[in-house]
Amino acid sequence: xxxxxxxxxxxxxxxxxxxxxxxxxxxxxxxxxxxxxxxxxxxxxxxxxxxxxxxxxxxxxxxxxxxxxxxxxxxxxxxxxxxxxxxxxxxxxxxxxxxxxxxxxxxxxxxxxxxxxxxxxxxxxxxxxxxxxxxxxxxxxxxxxxxxxxxxxxxxxxxxxxxxxxxxxxxxxxxxxxxxxxxxxxxxxxxxxxxxxxxxxxxxxx
Length: 206
Ligand code: B1M
What we know:
Layout: H1 2-10, H2 14-26, H3 31-51, H4 57-78, E1 88-93, H5 101-112, E2 116-119, H6 126-135, E3 140-144, H7 148-163, E4 170-173, H8 179-184, E5 189-190, H9 194-205
Parallel strand pairs: 1-2, 1-3, 3-4, 4-5
The structure holds CO-5-methoxybenzimidazolylcobamide.
């Protein structure tokens, strides 16, 4: 079934991905397995093909749309009801970055762990992060970047948060981001994946 799901994802067949996720859930497979062995594995293959110029942006876009649709189907199973939010997390992709699948996953896992999420979406400026952190009395600001260029821009966002006098910790992540880079730009938090992001946010708010 995972093979079929990966193939549908690669072809950008949104309805098919949704149906296969529903089928996998109905057969009792855990949501985390469907996510990791079906959807994320498919995106990894897509990344390889993209790198080798075997698929191009239009195909990647439709695959990403199918991925987001599959994620939406999984969301209710990844999320447990929590009455009192543990804290407010402002999340978005760094300025210039349009990659939102990883960010959506992190937001979903945090929401499922009881945090209130203010999702600013993609291509978010330092000013918008600062404004939202003030307005929503943020506990954590979370930045995602998938490009080496936009990763470099995270430094300016951390600096803007500090310059605004906000004492809110910043957590960064995304494929090119490392703990060393987080230390270098004085971001308090770093996580390599969505599950670790939940632990890291918990540590930052403790
Ligand atoms: Co683009 N892209 N892309 N792309 N794309 C990559 C990232 C790339 C690695 C492909 C490649 O060359 N192999 C490469 C980046 C190279 C680099 O700079 N290092 C690349 C490029 C070059 C580009 C363009 C420049 C291409 C062009 O125009 N010539 C362009 C840039 C657009 C822009 O942002 N300005 C571009 C465009 C696109 C699309 C729009 C077509 C599409 C995005 C659609 C969308 O997101 N809605 C796209 C996609 C889909 C990809 C790949 C194939 C898949 C990314 C993805 O969704 N992965 C990607 C190749 C790859 O990653 N192998 C690629 C699945 C997702 C679940 O993983 O996002 O890594 P990821 O998230 C993980 C962790 O990183 C972490 O947790 C998540 C899951 O556990 N994480 C965090 C993420 N954020 C976090 C935040 C945290 C903590 C953890 O704390 C806050």
